[in-house]
Amino acid sequence: MDTIHEPSRDVPVVADVDVCVVGGSTTGVFAALSAARLGATVALIERSAYFGGTATASLVCVWHSRMDTVFERTIIGGMPMELMDRLRVRGALDEFPGKADKEFVFSPMAMVLELDRMVAETGRRIRPFLHTSFVSAVSDGDGDVRAAIVEDKTGRRAVRAKVFVDASGAADLAHRMGLSTYTPARLQPPTVCALLQGLSALRSGHTGFDLRRVVFDPAYPEALRPGFLWTANLPKSDLTMVAGTRVHGADCSDADQLTRAELEGRRQVGAMLEILHRHVPGGDQVTLQGLPARIGIRESRHVHCLHQLTEAEVLAGERFPDAVANGSYRVDVHAAEGDGLVFRYLDGHEETVLADGTHRPGRWRVETTSNPTFYQIPYRSLVPTGSRNVLVAGRCLDADEGAYGAARVMINTAQMGEATGVAAWLSLDSGCEVGEVNVVDLRDRLARQGAVVI
Fold first, then answer.
1. Residue 380 CB: number of other CB atoms within 10 A?
2. Is the dihedral of CA 68, 227, 313, 449 positive or negative?
3. Do 29 and 119 touch, CB atoms closer than 8 A?
C-alpha cells in the first residue's frame, strides 16, 4: 500500500478525568453514569450527534423482557429499568408484559432527550464529547492506557484518564491499544431499519396483508433475499419501525465494508418501498419517514477476556460468583451466509426460521422436569486479558457464537455498561487493577443502585 508520512505532533490534553468511556450507546452512557454517580469524573466520547447508539441512531426501538422465562421473577433492574421508567412518565413507552421478545417499545427520539437529561443531572461529573471520533490509545506498553486520542471539529485532542471503558461496539480502543481481539469467521449480518407511515392503515384495509411475505416474494423483481422481518409500532404514533434488511458478509469493523453495508441496507429499504408502491393495492400510501443515522450492527470484533461465555453456560443457566448481568432473551443466531436463523430456548426447545418464512420446531436437548429460567454474564467476560485499566462493555464482550446470540441484545449490554462503570470506580477507589476488583463489593454496589443481583 502506498503511504504518506504524517509528521509527529504534540496533542493538547482537553480533559483529565478519572474514567473515560469510548462510545455513547446506552451501554456507554450507563457506564459513565454509574461511575459519575459514585463520585468519579468522566469523559464520554460519542461520534454521533446524540447518545443511545443502536436504540436511537439505529432506530431499534425494542428492549426485551426484564423477567425470567416463566415471568415469575424480575431479573433486571438498575439503570435499564430507570430509563424505561423515565420514558413511561414521558408517555414515550409501550409495554407488553408477558412477552419475552418485545416487552418495551419506546420512541428513539424521546430516549435521546432522556439520556441527555440523565447525563446533565450529574452536573459537571460527566463531560460529553459529541461529534467526536476515537482515533488511538496512548499506552505505556504494560497494559495501561494513559490517554485516548480523539478527533473533533476543534482538531486532534487527548483525553487523559485513569480507567477506560471500551463501549465502542467494535472494540476500537482495545484493538488499537494492542489487546488481543478476534473477529468470528461467521458474523451475524447487520440491518438497516426504517420508519414507515401508513402500514397500520394498509394492514387494517387489507385482511391477510403480510409485509414479510410481500417483500420477500420472488415474483417481484425488487424482492429482498428471503430472510426474517419484524416490526414495532412507535408509542402514540402512526410510525412503524421495520427491520427486514440483511447485509450478509459485512464486517462492520472494516471502514470500507461498513460503507458498503450502509448503502446496501438503504438500497433494500428502497426496494421494500418499490414493492409496496408498485405491486400492493393501497401500498402507495405507505411513506418513508425516517432512516437510521447508522446501520444496526449485530456483531463485529470481540475482545479476548479472562473468561469466554459459552452457549453451554447460557443454556444451562450457569450461575457465576461474579455475575453482573442477568438475561432471559433466547439464543438468537442469524445465519451468516444462509437466509434463516435459529432460536434456542432454556427449556430445551428450538425453532429454525427457514428462508421461506416457515418455522420448524425441534429440540436441542431432551425434555427435563425442570429448566433454568435465566442466564448470567460474568464480570470476567468484560475484563480483557493483559489489561490493567481497560474494561469492555457491550457487543465486544468475550462470548462464543451461541452465547453471543443471547447476550448481544440491548437490555443485556446496558447492564454490562452499568457494571463496568461501577467496576471502574472500585478500581480507582481501591487502587487495584480492573481484573482485581473485589466482585463481592462490585455486586453489592450494583444492588445498592437498584440492579438485580442474584
1. 20
2. negative
3. yes
**How wide is the angle at C-alpha 85 spanned by C-alphas 84 and 88, nearest 5°?**
85
**What does the domain layout of the chain look like in residue ranges?**
13-185+377-448, 194-290
Question: CA-CA distance, 279 to 375, in Å (whole number)?
Answer: 45
| DSSP states along 27-67 | HHHHHHHHHHHTT--EEEE-SSSSSBGGGTTT---EE--SB
Regarding beta strands 13-22 and 155-166, do their DSSP bridges make them parallel or antiparallel, or are they unpaired?
parallel
Under DSSP, the state recorded for 94 is E
Amino acid type, 382: L
pTM for the structure as a whole: 0.96
What is the rounded distance in angstroms from the CA atom of residue 45 to the CA atom of residue 25?
10
Concatenated DSSP letters for 308-327?
A: -B-HHHHHTT---TTEEEEE
Q: How far is CA 271 from CA 212, 241, 276, 281, 285, in A?
A: 13, 16, 9, 16, 16
Q: What's CA 273's distance to the chain center, in Å?
A: 27
**Look-up: residue for cell 476500537?**
172
Nearest 5°: phi and psi at 243? Answer: -120, 100
pLDDT number for residue 66: 95
Report the CATH number of the 13-185+377-448 domain: 3.50.50.60
Helix (H) or strand (E) holding 165: strand 155-166
Tens-place pLDDT, residues 405-443:
999 999 999 999 999 999 999 999 999 999 999 999 999
pLDDT tens figures, 243-256: 999 999 999 999 99
Which ranges constitute the DSSP H helices of 335-448?
A: 401-407, 410-430, 439-448
